[in-house]
Specification:
alpha/beta, UDP-N-acetylmuramoyl-L-alanine:D-glutamate ligase, nine-stranded mixed β-sheet, four-stranded mixed β-sheet, 10 helices, about 35% helix, kinase activity, kinase
Length: about 325
């Protein structure tokens, strides 16, 4: 398998108990989370354990998250422990209109990656680098992630980037700077991940599905992947992509959903595991360089992740995904 480096936040998701709104839920359950952390653990469970550049507070929640990453086989060499409290992402009850996540705690601790600590040495052994977009909402975080993307691209790594735009985390007056950073990182990206909602909020494009994937390709990626929720995903690539110029769409799988938190991250880990495998068959049966086949595998990974609560804790392993795909074939 290709050596993979993931960069971005690790935080705690607070999942609500029974109740129609946050005001009247009967309590919360804490679970490990953060989109890049979910992707890192997802890759580890799929047999592609990555290096992970992240930041953790020195509070009990930071201890909890480091212990979780250790248990999941994600190494701590690039973990930065800093003074302060871990960010909490409070998840809204199912069916609530409006914001799905509300963030509490120190933005500096979780998203304040230092530009002078970009792990360029780790790029010597990495062939694939995945960057989470939420860190771009922090002034130093966006500088650091820009530097990482540029350095990885210059060294010939495949860079994947999850736009994952969160307006609630953008300080007043900094929206233009965040959107500019997204554009810059896309310019150094090989594979872009996004949803219609994410991109519409940035103002980069208002189109959807395959049309949006085409718009994202204009910023520089050779492949753009747009997730469609329960409807699956669509991807488009140029002739610069290892899998050639193509457009592929695969529908989602019907399952009994319990909690959709982190489903997009599960999808991302599944797709990276397949595409980064190259001609190696470690990610599962079939040709990992076929974009449509990789989308189906990623959709299956996402489908299995929604059958239990918690974005990270519900992530499936490779054997479960392979069995699910074979069953549904």
């Amino acid at each position: 398998m290709t050596d993979i480096l993931v960069a971005g936040e690790t935080l705690v998701d607070l999942l609500p108990g029974a109740g129609e709104t946050l005001r009247d839920v009967d309590g919360f359950t804490h679970r490990p989370g953060g989109a890049p952390a979910n992707v890192a653990v997802g890759l580890s469970r799929l047999g592609a354990s990555p290096s992970f550049w992240t930041r953790l507070g020195d509070d009990p929640f930071g201890d909890f998250l480091r212990e979780t990453l250790d248990e999941e086989g994600v190494p701590d060499a690039l973990t930065r422990r800093v003074d302060g409290n871990t960010t909490l992402a409070v998840v809204s009850p199912p069916g609530v209109d409006g914001r799905r996540f509300r963030f509490y705690g120190s933005r500096d601790v979780t998203f304040g990656f230092e530009p002078d600590m970009v792990p360029t040495d780790a790029l010597a052994s990495a062939s694939w680098v995945h960057i989470g977009g939420v860190a771009l909402t922090h002034p130093t975080g966006r500088t650091a992630m820009r530097r990482l993307a540029a350095a990885a691209d210059e060294r010939g790594c495949t860079v994947s980037f999850d736009v994952n735009y969160r307006p609630d985390l953008v300080p007043e007056g900094e929206r233009d700077a965040v959107v500019e950073a997204i554009r810059d990182v896309l310019g150094d990206t090989g594979v872009a991940f996004a949803s219609d909602e994410d991109v519409a909020a940035t103002g980069i494009s208002s189109r959807e599905g395959a049309a949006l994937a085409g718009d994202l390709l204009e910023f520089g990626p050779h492949t753009a992947v747009v997730t469609l929720g329960s409807a699956g995903a669509v991807a488009a690539s140029t002739d610069a992509a290892p899998w050639g110029e193509t457009t592929a769409r695969r529908g989602g799988f019907t399952v009994e959903a319990v909690d959709a938190t982190g489903a997009g991250d599960a999808f991302t880990s599944g797709l990276i595991a397949r595409l980064a495998a190259g001609t190696d068959d470690a990610a599962g049966p079939g040709d990992p360089t076929d974009l449509g086949d990789a989308l189906a595998f990623a959709n299956a990974t996402a489908a299995l992740s929604v059958r239990d609560r918690g974005g990270m804790t519900a992530l499936p392993d490779r054997e479960a995904v392979e069995a699910f795909v074979a069953e549904r074939a």
